[in-house]
Each structure stands twice: as C-alpha cells, then as structure tokens.
Amino acid sequence: LRYQGKKVFLDMKLLDIGNTVERAVANAAELDITFLTVHGQDLKTLRAAVSGRGGSKVKLLAVTVLTNLSTQDLAQQGSSLSPADLVLRRAEMAYAAGFDGVVASGQEAARIRAATGPNFLIVTPGIRLTGGTTDDQERVMTPDHAIMAGADHLVVGRPITQADDPRLAAGTFVHHIREALANSSAKPSGPH
C-alpha cells in the first residue's frame, strides 16, 4: 500500500511497560507508516512512545477510551470518571507528552479541540449513519456531527464491511462526509 502512495494506519493499541513500547514504536516507525496507536493510559507509556518514534514521521495517536465503553464499564475498571472526563484527561496527557493526536469518540471531540487547539489530530471511530445499528459501540456519532465537533479523521468499519452492498455503503458515507466538510468550511466557527 505504501508503494502505491497510500497512508497506512497501524492500529496496534500498544500497551506495555515503557521500554517495550519504545522498542515497538521504533520498529513500527521503520515501516514508514502514517499513524500508530498507543493506549493513552499513563504518561510513562506515552513518553516512551515519543522517544521510540525518534526522527521518523509516524504520527502517534493515543487511544483515550474505547468507544464501546460506558460509565458502568469504567466503574468496573475502578474509574470514577465519566467517559468524557477520562477522555479529556488522557487527551491532555497525550498532548503534553508530544503526541500528534488521539483516538476518541465524536462525543468528546469538541472538548478535546478546545483543550488542545487546531493542530492536534482527532481520529473518531464509532461513526454510524442515522438509523443504522450501533453494534457493540456505546458512544457513536454521525459523520456530520463528528466533523462539526472537530474530528479530523473518521473510522468506519462494520457499517461498510458488513453491509449488503459495501460499495453503496461506502459511497453513502463519503457523501455525508463531503457534505459535512462543505458545511463546516462554509461556517466561520473553529478549526476542524
């Protein structure tokens, strides 16, 4: 894919001790990928990932809180924070550590954008069309709402890959994304 000029998103969601994450990031960076994900749970791991990147161009994205997790799920893990508050805390940590952006639900995108500014990337999974199934996702958003909230990149999987007509489904998402981008660029609101 890289030889065809495509961008490669390596969604590894790395999580381990700092030394292991640093080496894993260094190895992945040698592949000349565009994006690499690391769980954004602690500052040591985030700093190790930045160190492992070295001088490569790979953009590091911190996974904040998986979009299938609810407040109850986080409570089971021992967190008293809501998903939105935990996402913001982890986004701010990633920003401070030198990450290029985060993976977060569109529901949290506006808060992240306000806290980090226009150059911090927000990659948003859990994208669904109105009336579509949410599958196992807890915090979903339509493409237009995610873009208006500040998302830079959208991740759409099962609504396309499991559709009866994947080509038609992909075209429908592209249409909604184009409309949202046209509408967001026509408005003088904040960066998207």
What does the secondary structure layout of this molecule look like, with pairings?
Elements (H helix, E strand, L loop, with lengths): L8 E6 L3 H12 L5 E5 L3 H11 L5 E5 L7 H6 L6 H15 L3 E3 L2 H11 L4 E4 L18 H7 L3 E2 L3 H4 L4 H21 L6
Parallel strand pairs: 1-2, 2-3, 3-4, 4-5, 5-6
Helix pairs in contact: 1-2, 4-5, 5-6, 6-8
Description of the structure:
The chain is α/β, with parallel strands linked by helices and 192 residues long. It is 45% helix and 13% strand. It contains eight helices and six strands. It has a six-stranded parallel beta sheet with strand order 1-2-3-4-5-6. The radius of gyration is 17 Å and the shape is globular.
